[in-house]
Amino acid sequence: ETGVTQSPTHLIKTRGQQVTLRCSSQSGHNTVSWYQQALGQGPQFIFQYYREEENGRGNFPPRFSGLQFPNYSSELNVNALELDDSALYLCASSLGRGRPGYTFGSGTRLTVV
Amino acid sequence: GEDVEQSLFLSVREGDSSVINCTYTDSSSTYLYWYKQEPGAGLQLLTYIFSNMDMKQDQRLTVLLNKKDKHLSLRIADTQTGDSAIYFCAESGRGNTDKLIFGTGTRLQVFP
């Protein structure tokens, strides 16, 4: 059974650029959530996808968008990058709503300069 | 509000017990979780407790839940240097997303 894998592990982008982060869910998990963890903070919920549809969104602007594919893998896209977008982006998968226990990937460390 | 609060630091001697505390605000939370994060790594699920339980024990870990006071604690028995990490409590079950609301994390330092 594979866990949650994220790519790339590290990324440096320039302010104003666009970035795509990728996540492969744990086998059998149909729900994917993305979190942003700024340095020294707890993770903040960005959005969740369930069976390829957005199923809830946190307090993030529309330039944060996502996709979930039929194999339940997922992408997080961020447009018009800002310096404050520098953070660890974590993907988490689960068996579905009401089922406990999210499995997290190791994250993508994004630095915006 | 959506605040989950934790103390920032805890320092214990190797072999002693550690107790990490957390308070949350939403009494409708379904599950409460403890995650561990080592430097440069993602989050590792340690344990979780369903909101209708008072206690859960899993090897060296004991979770206590006081729903009246909205207080959650994690006790680590026989703390080892490998337990040094940041520990996050989180609640879920609000709305349709089961999104996790995390605390700011407690940095546990274990010294010999």
Shape of chain A: globular
Radius of gyration of chain A using CA atoms only: 13 Å
Helical fraction of chain B equals under 10%
Proportion of beta-strand residues of chain B = over 45%
Could you tell me the number of beta strands of chain B?
A: 11
Task: Count all strands of chain A and give the number.
Answer: 11
Number of helices of chain B: 0
Largest sheet of chain A: 7 strands, mixed
Structural class by SSE content of chain B: mainly beta
Poorly predicted ranges of chain A: none
What order do the helices and strands of chain B follow?
Answer: EEEEEEEEEEE
Distance between the termini of chain B: 40 Å
Write the element-wise H/E pattern of chain A from the N-terminal end onward.
EEEEEEEEEEE
Note down, in words, how this protein is organized.
The complex is a heterodimer of chains A (113) and B (112). Helix content of chain A is 0%, strand content 50%. Chain A has no helices and eleven strands. In chain A, the strands form two sheets. In chain A, strands 2, 4, 5, 6, 9, 10 and 11 form a seven-stranded mixed sheet that branches. Chain A has a four-stranded antiparallel sheet with strand order 1-3-8-7, with no helix packed on it. In chain A, strand 5 and strand 6 form a beta hairpin. Chain A starts with a strand and ends with a strand. Chain B is mainly β and 112 residues long. In chain B, strands 2, 4, 5, 9, 10 and 11 form a six-stranded mixed sheet that branches. A five-stranded antiparallel sheet of chain B has the order 1-3-8-7-6, with no helix packed on it. The N and C termini of chain B lie far apart (40 Å). The mean pLDDT of chain B is 91. Chains A and B meet through strand 4, strand 5, strand 9 and strand 10 of A and strand 4, strand 5, strand 9 and strand 10 of B.
